[in-house]
Specification:
This protein is α+β, with helices and mostly antiparallel strands. The protein has helices at 23-34, 59-68, 89-99, 101-119; strands spanning 11-18, 39-45, 50-55, 72-74. The protein is built from four helices and four strands; from the N terminus they run E-H-E-E-H-E-H-H. A four-stranded antiparallel sheet has the order 2-3-1-4.
Length: 120
């Protein structure tokens, strides 16, 4: 049998991705995945949080690239999204600040500065 006649089927994966919230996120992931050697085709849907990718690429390479892009692969055994409770008003604003590490630091620095000004 001729070696060239035997062609290996490319791998095809369906991957759930956490952290996407808009079409721009999906485009960022698609463009980033196209740069991975061996990827032949990729399609991402932010509404379903699914990515279809095919080519001569491993699942580890896919997960590594997703992490580099600032997202994460959701494994079958974990929940896709925790149940969110929406707070409004001052409680909602403070919850939002607390959930963002860089904003939380800014809040502490601002409070420390305000306390320092009060003592002067």
């Amino acid at each position: 049998m001729d070696q060239q006649a035997i062609q290996e089927e490319p791998s095809a994966f369906k991957v759930r991705i956490a952290g996407m919230d808009c079409g721009s996120c999906a485009m960022t992931i698609e463009n980033g995945m196209r740069q991975v050697p061996g990827v032949k085709d990729v399609a991402v849907s932010f509404t379903t949080e699914l990515m279809d990718v095919s080519g001569d690429v491993s699942l580890d390479d896919i997960a590594r690239r997703i992490k580099e892009l600032g997202y994460r692969v959701v494994h079958d055994d974990e929940q896709t999204a925790p149940i969110a409770v929406e707070h409004r008003g001052l409680v909602g604003f403070l919850s939002f600040l607390w959930e963002q590490p860089h904003l939380r630091r800014a809040l502490f620095v601002t409070l420390a500065a305000a306390i320092g000004v009060l003592f002067v």
